[in-house]
Amino acid sequence: MHMQAVELVKRLWDQVLLLDDSKKLVNLSGTPSRLLFTAAELGIVEFSKHISCCSVAHRQKKIFNLIYEIGALKDLIAAYKDENNVNMLHLAARLAPLNRLKTDSGAALQLRRELYWFKEVEKIVQPLYAEMKDSEGRTPHILFTEEHKGLVREGEKWMKDTASSCMLVATLIATVMFAAAFTVPGGNNNDTGRPIAISERSFLVFAISDALALFSSATSILMFLSILTSRYAEEDFLESLPNRLIIGLATLFISIATMMISFCATLFIVLDKSVPWVSVPMAVVACIPVTLFAFLQFPLLVDMVSHTYGSSIVFRPRNHLLY
Q1: According to CATH, what is the number of the domain 152-315?
Q2: How many CA atoms lie within 13 A of 145 on its CB side?
Q3: Which of 2, 32, 173, 268 is the most exposed place for a label (fewest CB within 10 A)?
Q4: Whether the model pTM is above 0.85
Q5: In terms of Cα–Cα distance, which of 195, 194, 185 is closest to 264?
Q6: What is the pLDDT of residues 140-188, one digit of tens each?
Q7: Domain 1-150 has CATH 2.60.40
Q8: Radius of gyration of the chain, Cα coordinates, nearest whole angstrom
Q9: Does residue 188 sit in helix, strand or coil?
Q10: What Pfam families is this protein classified in (predicted)?
Q11: Which are the contacts of 323, defined by CB distance < 8 A and separation ≥ 6?
Q12: Which residues are CB-neighbours of 49 under 8 A, at least 6 positions away?
């Protein structure tokens, strides 16, 4: 009867995993802690083991976080090993189900999520388990590399395509801003060589925005160039490449915004006295490219920031009540 009960748990849990995310265990029981803590209280080790292993294999972070709160049972679950010598870290090394991968946009973010899961599970298993070989002679690290070869290639292509496109825009901005620094609006004084409009406030805005646009676009170019020349090892997708892409996108946005500010300041200097009514409408129109960039690229930047700096919060254990 005991063995039949364990098999029943496995069958029921497999059926739960077939449901939509909104209908899975977390919502079926209010919080997953109720099932896990009840199993721990009654000493049903097999139930807790199976749910914990499934949470790792199917990337269920809420249930995985509760492993930290089971107390002594946590170490027992972390020491899981089946008849094929597959431990908890082997399960984390396998490629996540397609429906879990689709929650992240882009192959690079998907691979980073997989790497972070592997690192988090590695923290709770015994050090010996990291070098344990399964029945096919594969350690968890070797299995991870084999399972994620395709995702690494896709992530590399996604990173290079994104960096190449953004680098082209940053290069154009840097070229224009460098030329604008030597062709100041309003012209120069023939006697002194100083800009005629140097005393105007608009000229100060032009000078500052032009310098910021040039420096930020140059920084963006360097970041995207470093992405294109990266070695693209698995570990690079965890911190190095996402950080570079975040800095590159942020500085590219700054360069676009300051370029348009510089353009508006030039219009104020040139047209404010002769055709003053043109300056304000043109300044409003100049906001369109900045707004478009925000709508088109900010979601990607937000995803990168949330994945890079929000992962530790996702895997942070919390205190749950049994009832």
Answers
A1: 1.20.140
A2: 8
A3: 2
A4: no
A5: 185
A6: 999 999 999 999 999 999 999 999 999 999 999 999 999 888 887 766 6
A7: no
A8: 28
A9: strand
A10: PGG
A11: 34
A12: 76, 77, 80
